[in-house]
Amino acid sequence: MENDALQAPAQALLPGRRSILVRLVCKAGMRPALLEVLNAYTDNLSEEPGTEMFVMSLDPENDTTVWLYEIFRDDDAEVAHRESNGFAVLMRVLPPLLDGPPAVLRMEPLRISLQERVLVEDWAF
User: Fold this and answer.
1) What is the pLDDT of residue 3?
2) pLDDT value at position 107?
3) Which residues contact 29 (CB under 8 A, 6 or more apart)?
4) DSSP readout, 43-56?
5) How far is the C-alpha of 72 from the C-alpha of 14, rounded, in Å?
6) What's the mean pLDDT when you consider all of the chain?
C-alpha cells in the first residue's frame, strides 16, 4: 500500500454531465429501512448505464438524514434514470419512510478526482 500513496488520483473533466444532490429526511427510527431500500436500488444501477456515479452518505449530525449525489452522462441519461423501473420502485417504497419530500439540487459537475485504490479495496458487503 505504500506505493498507492505515490499514485496520482484518476482525473476527469465532466463536460455536458448533469448531477443532483438529494437530501432525504426519514421518519424517526426509519433510517435502517431507508438504507436497505437505497442499497437494493444501488445494487441494480447497471440497468441505468447513463448513471455514472451514485454516492450515498449518512449525515453525521442527524440520524434521520441521508444524502445522495448522482452524476448522469447527459440530460437524456437523467431522464432515463427517472423513467427506469428501479426508480419507479424507489418512488413507490420511499414515501412511507420519509418525513417530507426529497430536497433536490441540480448541478453541472465540472471535474472529478478519485483515488483509484478506493475501488479495489476489500469492501465486503
Assistant:
1) 56
2) 97
3) none
4) TTGGG-TTEEEEEE
5) 10
6) 92
Question: How many Cα atoms sit within 13 Å of 82 on the Cβ side?
Answer: 7
Give me the domains of the chain, ranges plus CATH numbers: 28-107 (3.30.70.100)
AA identity, residue 79: V
pLDDT of 112:
92
Residues in the chain: 125
| The three grid cell numbers given for residue 2, joined into one nine-digit string | 505504500
pTM above 0.90, yes or no: no
Question: Which residues in the chain land under pLDDT 50?
Answer: 1
Q: Which three three-digit cell numbers place residue 100?
A: 417530507
pLDDT tens digits for range 51-75: 999 999 999 999 999 999 999 999 9
Q: Which three cell numbers stand for residue 74?
A: 447527459
**Residue 52 CB coordination number (10 Å):** 20
Please report where in the chains the cell 444532490 appears, as a residue: 21
Cell of 32: 435502517
Give buried/exposed letters for 74-85 (b at 16+ CB in 10 A, else e). Answer: eeebbebbeebe
